[in-house]
Amino acid sequence: MPTKITETVRTALLRRPLKPSVTKDSEIPGFALHVTRKRSFWALSYQPKGVNPATGKRWGGGVRHELGDAMLTTVAEARTAALAAKAVVRAGRSPHHERMACTASAVALRSVLPSIVAEALEAYAAAFMARRQPSEQTRRKSIHYARKAIRLMQAETLSLAALEPAMARVMLETMAGSESERRLVFRGLRYFLAWCRKQGLVERNICDELDRDERPRNAQSRDHVPSLGQLRAVWDAIEDEPQRDLVRLLLLIPLRRDEAAGLPWSEVDLQLRRIRIPPNRAKTRETHELPLSTAALELLEARKPITPGQLVFPSSKDKPFDGFSALLKRIRTRIGDSKTEKAEHFVLHDIRRGFVSHLAERGFDVDLLDQCLGHSRKSVLGVYQRSSRMAERARALEAWAQVVTGEEVEQTGKVVPIRAAVAT
Fold it and tell me: Between 179-198 and 117-129, two packed helices, what is the crossing angle to 10 degrees?
């Protein structure tokens, strides 16, 4: 028989050991206190109204909607919850089925979202590689250094919540390698954890909690402009190198190092005398097109393959050349640059700075030269100046090739041998 459930009744029914029983309340139909041998809980039994949205048919029978633990929830709190649930039922909804749907959704979400560091890293790699920016090579490098950071912290099998700032701090203090390597590893870890935080997988980015003096120092921007003598010395120093033509093309055309190393023949048009770097390989994610000077055209024609579609400068593994560090060491030794200050060491990117600096001194428009470098066009120049100025680019690149390869044509028409110019 239903009885009015009071705190006295609740206390009597919850005495240990528990005895299984169902005590129905006389004031709220369907409201009851359920006791089993292991637990006790409040519940409201009801018949859902309307139809089941999953089947389109009327609900098959009554359901029991739990309202809370009877040990922790008072009678007054349980009555309030029962009346609120009955109001939901009268509105044509089913609180029990809604709760079950939410629970199922939460379980499914937990099964999709990674909680282990290694799993999160794989999800991050897939998501990062699916982006359009930055360039594919930059994305791969970032993922590589994120993996290295996690490996050095020995955190692959840990939960994401277990990552602590001390782990990143010790990793940076104990890892071998240069300051540049430490900087790249730290940046890779920071980007990975920033993604995890954005996805709601972690509440904080442990890299942000390191003090400024604990983080790797930012690299100082280079401002070294190679002299014409240094550029010519590099041209001569690579005569017997397997990658001679790759370096010489970089000396002739201001491409980025990786753009030239990964250059396929499909991006070279010898008839139109053009190189066209597509958006997926360009740093700015925009097509970068450059005319070929006579010297560059002759270099590429000499390497023209029988079967098209291959790389212009393949390595021994038929992949883009990636041994630049060792190559540059040999070049610096041959040109007497190995013992100079690091800021004055020759690097391939210096060629681009030399291209702009030396041609600007010869009267070429700096905006035109910037277009040749393939930089992003912003502000007024990016919005309104849409001309490619291809004919002017061709003249600039022809002049640059003549500077690099042996003779410089001045605007007066006088030919000045570069070796004589260097000597002065």
Answer: 90
Please tell me which residue, 83 or 57, carries the higher pLDDT value.
Answer: 83
Distance CA 99, CA 20 (A): 25
Place of tokens 């104990």: 174
Residue range 104-124: average pLDDT?
73
Question: Of the ranges 295-309, 318-332, 388-402, which one carries the lowest mean pLDDT score?
Answer: 295-309
Reply yes or no on whether the pLDDT at 342 is more than 90.
no
H helical segments located in 153-207? 165-174, 179-198
CA 17 centroid distance within chain: 59
The Cα 44–Cα 95 span in angstroms is 10
Name which of 373, 191, 366, 354 is nearest 283 in CA terms.
373
Q: Do 332 and 346 form a contact (C-beta atoms < 8 A)?
A: yes
The residue count for the chain: 424
Provide the pLDDT for residue 385: 63
Alpha helices in 29-116 (DSSP H): 75-90, 95-112
Torsion of CA 217, 222, 223, 229, to 10 degrees: 150
Tell which residue, 380, 379, 397, 401, has the closest CA to residue 389: 397
Cα separation of 363 and 334, whole Å?
A: 32
- Which of 112 and 71 is assigned the larger pLDDT? 71
Is 62 strand, coil or helix?
Answer: coil
CB atoms within 10 A of CB 284: 16
319-329 residue pLDDT tens: 888 888 899 99
Question: Rounded to whole angstroms, how far apart are CA atoms 277 and 290?
Answer: 9
Burial of 20 (0-12, 13-18, 19+ CB in 10 A): exposed
Distance from C-alpha of 209 to C-alpha of 360, rounded to nearest angstrom: 45
Contacts of 295 (CB under 8 A, 6+ apart): 252, 401, 402, 404, 405
pTM over 0.85: no
Give 299's pLDDT tier (boundaries 50, 70, 90): very high
